[in-house]
Design a protein that fits this description.
By secondary structure, the protein is mainly alpha-helical. The chain is 42% helix and 7% strand. Strands 1-3-2 form a 3-stranded antiparallel β-sheet. A two-stranded antiparallel sheet has the order 4-5.
């Protein structure tokens, strides 16, 4: 059944899309309508011709076949076979499509044991560890990739209902894969960044900031804890947590509360915008405990990221409510009991995060 999908403005300026012919671009858009909520569809030139180009007699099945090969060559999809049928999964489908009530796919899923599927995920992530930013073998020679130091990590483990679909898989180096152990994904990213801040303060060196699971990698972060496990996944059993050697962030001149906000998906990256946020925040809300409010806001943003459009506007709205005594998920409350209960919840959550990172 065809489904309603959306096209983002940046689609038209994407380099991979620009490498496609006009017909291949239209066929790729058509594949979104044909795909289910997991981004899986039957990969058949005849089916594509009949469903997307029914009135174009000049477009032949061979033409559509050529377009589909162009799409696959740009690593926009991964093609796999089950029985006598071919299927495809759109690698960044859940990055660009917001599904309110996703339904599980009824089509066969790709296997993580398939080396071609694993390589497709590595290429999607640029052969780079999403935790520490290390360039992995194969990055400089994509025509002859190797997975010797690259591993796949599940954001939500199989034991907790995690799956092998692209939006639950990330590329990780062996060191980070082992070090994460059973730490929840968001907490491990925060821990790696905290170590980066410490390394920057100790050495005074500035390098490229660590990548985060944002729209540059997979977009949506599924909820849940831990990393992927399961027999036959090709992922080594993790050993005891080891200290990480990570690259320090690009800038060390911002206060701690702003560094927390800079880790958020959707937060501006350029220095001038962050300087504006720093000045406006300190001028209007400097009397508040900004580091504490920033930590609360980070939790709030992770819980509500699908509903919030602008991180900066949401941050200032949060501080405005905090100034009036609202301290729980940005909802103003006037009752002393509600404020006390919210404080206790925040303290318990902060204590559990601290205990998990020690």
């Amino acid at each position: 059944m065809p489904r309603i999908r959306s096209i983002k403005p940046e689609f038209w300026t994407d380099e991979k899309i620009g490498a496609l012919s006009l017909g291949a671009r239209l066929a790729f858009i058509a594949s979104w309508n044909m795909a289910d909520d997991d981004g899986i569809l039957e990969w058949s030139p005849l089916s594509m011709k009949a469903r997307a180009f029914p009135y174009d007699s000049q477009i032949t099945e061979e033409t559509v076949q050529q377009w589909l090969q162009e799409i696959a060559a740009q690593n926009l999809i991964h093609v796999y076979t089950r029985g006598k049928a071919n299927y495809a999964i759109i690698l960044n489908f859940r990055k660009h499509q917001y599904i309110q009530k996703p339904k599980p796919s009824k089509l066969p899923l790709p296997s993580i044991q398939n080396s071609a599927y694993r390589t497709a995920i590595f290429q999607r992530d640029g052969w780079t560890c999403v935790y520490c930013g290390s360039a992995l073998p194969g990055y400089n020679s994509p025509s002859e990739p190797t997975t010797r130091h690259a591993t796949l990590d599940h954001i939500v483990p199989r034991s907790q209902g995690g799956h092998d679909l692209p939006h639950n898989l990330v590329t990780a180096c062996e060191r980070c894969n082992k070090a994460r152990c059973d730490i929840p994904f968001e907490e491990f990213v925060a821990k790696v960044r905290s170590q980066a801040d410490d390394a920057s303060a100790a050495t005074g060196n500035n390098t490229v900031p660590l990548p985060y699971m944002s729209d540059t990698v997979t977009g949506e972060i599924p909820s849940g804890k831990g990393g992927g496990r399961g027999k036959g996944t090709g992922i080594r059993e993790r050993e005891k947590e080891a200290p990480l050697v990570v690259a320090p962030p690009a800038s060390n001149r911002f206060p701690e509360w702003l560094k927390l906000l800079q880790r958020l998906e959707g937060w501006p990256k350029d220095a001038s915008a962050n300087e504006e946020v720093q000045k406006k925040t300190q001028d209007r809300f400097g009397h508040l405990s900004l580091e504490e409010e920033a930590q609360k806001f980070v939790w709030h943003w992770q819980d509500s990221r699908r509903k919030l459009k602008s991180a900066r506007r949401a941050w200032w709205n949060w501080l405005g409510r905090a100034q009036k005594g609202a301290i729980t998920h940005g909802v103003a409350t006037g009752s002393v009991e509600a404020i006390r209960a919210a404080k206790e919840r925040w303290e318990r959550r902060r204590a559990s995060v601290s205990a998990a990172s020690e």
